[in-house]
Amino acid sequence: MLRFAVTVVLSAFLLFLVQPLVGKVVLPWFGGAPAVWTTCLLFFQLVLLGGYAWSHLVVRRLQGPWQRRAHVLLLVTALVSLVVTTALWGTPLVPSNALRPEGSDAPTLRLLLLLGLSVGLPYFALSSTGPLLQAWVAQRVPAVTAMRLYAASNVGSLVGLLAFPVFFEPLWPLRSLAWAWAFGFTLFAVLCASLAWTAPVVPRDTANETKLGARTVAGWIILAALPSALLLATTNHLTQDVAPIPFLWVLPLVLYLASFVITFDSDRWYRRGWALPALAGMGLFVAGLLLYPTEPSALAALVGYLGFLAVACVAGHGELVRRRPAGEHLTAFYLAVSVGGALGGFAVAVVAPRVLRDFYELPIVAALMVVAVAVAVLPGLPSPRPSPPRGEGDSFWLGRAFLPVSVLLAILFGWSIKSRGVDVLETRRDFFGVLRVERDPRGLVLMHGRVLHGAQLADPAKRRLATTYYAPASGVGRLLRSYQGPVRVGAIGLGVGTLAAYVKPGDDYRFYEISPTVVALAGGKAPGGDGVGRENGGHFTWLSDAPARPSVVLGDARTSLEREAPNRYDVIVVDAFSGDSVPTHLLTKEAFELYRAHLASDRSVLALHVSNRYLNLLPVVARLARELGLHSLVVDIDKGHPEDWALSSLWVLLSKDPEALRLDVPADDASTLATVAEGPLWTDEFTSLWGLVVW
Question: How many CA atoms lie within 13 A of 490 on its CB side?
């Protein structure tokens, strides 16, 4: 039993260690969008489903030693695939740069294919191991004992998931981590193959096997699908509408996995007596949060949404475990759980962005979740369990009492799908998030979740006045106004095109933007269209009003710059760190060397917008500036001008020539990076946000 437990825990550890590892590898190729993580989760759920299906087929269709031989063959095939990709790419798990997407079209399919090439077969082999070994163990011990291996595997999953950001990522370069994971997988393959080869597989007694009912299997799938969908919906909502902190990608998954550990370990942990009242209370709290136009505070929102997710997952998985089958149907049970997980992930990651114009999946899934739990606890429903756990015999009244509460919660969740209390002119959703054009008494605003992408004054006399973080008093505003003659500017991040307010006749401005929706709403040149302005569906006029029309390059900025000849820019503006997940690949030594290659001379300036509520990026910039021998000017405007829509901002201007940074900036607003404690050197092999969080 110990060897089985060690192998299962190791497989789960590698399963969830590789998720953030591979996610970090591909994240820069798709602009660092939060949807990259949810798509990765969908991929891993789909492959997990394939692994569970494999283990089910092996147990149900093969007899005796053929089960062992089939699994050993799978392990060998996965190991060979890892060796082949390593030989082709030079490093395991890290695809060749030749596979980088050239544009931003069909990112979901491209990402799924890339993940399949990178880690598909090894992940498939890892995912099939747990249920197969548990099925073999269940032939000799009670099913409840065998299922404790599933709880142990989720402990391994939790350790693997948390070990990456806390221990491995801050200490090890990316490629070293990939090699270490490949070594761990090789060790696992050898251990699992030796275990499979010697495992005593008892022939199936098909004559005495019970039959599974369709309603029972459907119940398993539903109770597994809704927590999975709730996981992704909560992650989307938190990272887009509450606080765009990358760590929030991991925390909901930790709670989701912990619910498996709690419910599958023993019957004594999940009790309806506390779970149903807790679910009702947290449900009312979350419904109240959703009914507000904005959350009262980020802390209250995190407590509410994560608390509801935790209780809902425990309740859903607790009811799922109460319906566990006898040992001969254990692989069918895990297959149904995996089918449910994949369906829930598919619904949120693929279907919702195409049918819902905003993040409405959270209230929809939350409503379905509370109703499903209420129905599950009603007496008389089909269940393989002959009786409720000890001490639960009188708790069925909770089901009857919870049913009307669940209906009330569903109504409240449905009611929350309404206007946020602002005048929304248009809402669009794509792979990179939800964008809303809102009308303000002063003019128009473009919002990306809770991140302000730009604003334009309605007053015709001020329509070309730069606003928000790009106001004339800002660092970039003072820099661009200092140029008297024609200037050539490359800007990473379009927003609503506010920087075009500084365009003069003869200037050449070129924007790099990954989201086609942002380009369209800003009035940029639509793919396949001609011209710039409102005729392309835009709401903002900076691009069309500019004396010299800027050009827009669609796609990840760094990938685009790598494919272009040196542009000889006088100024490169990097504005991609104020919200969403921080695209760390734009803030590495290699990225800075790329920017320097595109600058015209030593007097050229690299302008970085590093305003961020959650991260202090100055230490990273300070280290990069020293590594490349760049002088600095930090312009920190902490007071805005509401009447002109000027906001506080933090800009860092870097140049080889200190004379290029002699701007007219008040002494109270100006400093240099010499006063900043340097952080770690970020490279394409090493980035870590630990230590930069503004708690």
Answer: 23
How many residues are listed for the chain in this entry? Answer: 695
The backbone torsions φ and ψ at residue 439, rounded to the nearest 5 degrees and listed phi first, read: -95, 130
Query: What order of strands is seen across the sheet that includes strand 423-430?
Result: 423-430, 433-440, 443-448, 451-457
Which pair of structure tokens corresponds to residue 481? 């106004």
Contact by Cβ (8 Å): 134, 148: no
Please, which pLDDT band fits residue 221 given cuts at 50, 70 and 90? very high
328 falls in which pLDDT band (50, 70, 90)?
low
Task: Give the integer Cα–Cα distance in Å for 301 and 481.
Answer: 41
Residues ≥6 apart with Cβ < 8 Å to 513? 493, 494, 519, 524, 552, 553, 554, 557
Compute the average pLDDT of residues 503-513.
95
SS3 track for 474-528: CHHHHHHHCCCCCCEEEEECCCCCHHHHHCCCCCEEEEEECCHHHHHHCCCCCCC
Q: Considering the entire predicted model, what is its pTM?
A: 0.78
**pLDDT at residue 447, rounded to an integer:** 86
Give the DSSP letter of residue 684.
T
Token pair for residue 129? 């191991």
Alpha carbons 417 and 420: distance in angstroms, whole number? 9
What's the CA gap between 310 and 375, in Å, rounded?
19
Contact 40, 19 (CB under 8 A): yes
The model's pLDDT over 159-214, given as tens digits with 9 standing for 90+, comes to 888 888 788 888 888 889 999 999 999 999 998 888 777 766 655 555 556 677 78
CB 693 within 8 A of CB 647: no
* Total H helices, total E strands in the chain: 22, 12
Portion of the chain with pLDDT greater than 90, in percent: 35
Tokens 């692994």 identify what position? 51
Q: CB-based burial of residue 103 (10 Å sphere; 0-12 exposed, 13-18 middle, 19+ buried)? A: middle
Judged by average pLDDT, the poorest of 76-85, 144-153, 402-411, 643-652 is: 144-153
CB neighbour list of residue 517: distance below 8 Å, 6 or more residues apart: 428, 429, 430, 432, 435
Q: How far apart (Å, rounded) are the C-alpha atoms in residues 612 and 620?
A: 14
**Consecutive H or E run containing 154:** helix 148-163
Tokens of 647: 């906001």
**528: CB partners within 8 A, 6+ apart:** none
- For position 533, what pLDDT does the model report? 40
